[in-house]
DNA sequence: TATATACGCAACCGATTGATTTCATAATAT
DNA sequence: ATATTATGAAATCAATCGGTTGCGTATATA
């Protein structure tokens, strides 16, 4: 079982789930209504998201509310960091070039 | 063919390729030396990365140098933006709470 | 010109994925 | 107590994935 965040966010339905529960915790049934798929399929996606700790359960009677673990999302941000450095660098270079051209 | 960036970065080998060529353009052969897999397998990964425009080819004689399209990486950053807002908000709230506790 | 090198592409294969169907279980409502 | 509702879990299936092997082609070298 290769359960990491990157594999988790690879699926468009899972990304949509993440976006939905980022705003407020939701039950599997409520989530399923937003998609063109069965409740069970959504449940399976939630299991994957739970396994890689992107999502937290909150039991409330017979309902289970799923909430986004926002902090876990930062791991993607952390991976992006290395490239952010590069694209900012390039932006700086472009900036300097433009400044240089202006001077002339 | 479901070829989007999120699916592209789901594979750990592809993420490693991205990291490697972020520093400098490389040929498939040079890349393959870094992995425990065949040149053809790397080539296949490069094809996927090329298809979703995360990578650009630069022909040079019989060699093909693959270079990272850093700008494309920003699309992941853009998707993360919505959550960044949330986690900064939470951090602010924690900050205010701490300030409040200090006052007392 | 013959050979070696760098590479992409197609065929194939086992493992994984995402979905459905069916079932079991626990909480709530009648 | 019985029916209903909310849910997870297991079995199953077609599609996709990541890998290998074998081939064709273009460029470089002998």
Walkthrough of the structure:
The structure is a homodimer of 104-residue chains. The first copy, chain A, is mainly alpha-helical and 104 residues long. Chain A has one domain: Winged helix-like DNA-binding domain superfamily/Winged helix DNA-binding domain (Arc Repressor Mutant, subunit A), CATH 1.10.10. Helix content of chain A is 65%, strand content 12%. Chain A has five helices and two strands, in the order ααααββα. Chain A has a two-stranded antiparallel sheet with strand order 1-2. The first copy, chain A, is elongated, with a radius of gyration of 20 Å. Chain A starts with a helix and ends with a helix. The mean pLDDT of chain A is 92. Chain A binds a DNA duplex (30 and 30 nucleotides) through helix 4.
Q: Can you summarize this structure?
A:
The structure is a homodimer of 104-residue chains. With 104 residues, chain A is mainly alpha-helical. The first copy, chain A, has five helices and two strands.
């Amino acid at each position: 079982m290769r359960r990491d965040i990157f594999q988790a966010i690879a699926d468009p339905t899972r990304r949509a789930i993440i976006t939905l529960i980022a705003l407020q915790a939701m039950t599997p049934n409520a989530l399923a209504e937003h998609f063109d798929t069965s409740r069970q399929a959504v449940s399976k996606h939630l299991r994957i998201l739970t396994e890689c700790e992107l999502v937290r359960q909150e039991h409330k009677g017979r309902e289970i509310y799923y909430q986004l673990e926002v902090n876990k999302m930062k791991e993607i941000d952390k991976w992006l960091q290395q490239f952010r450095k590069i694209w900012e660098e390039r932006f700086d270079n472009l900036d300097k070039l433009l400044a240089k051209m202006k001077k002339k």
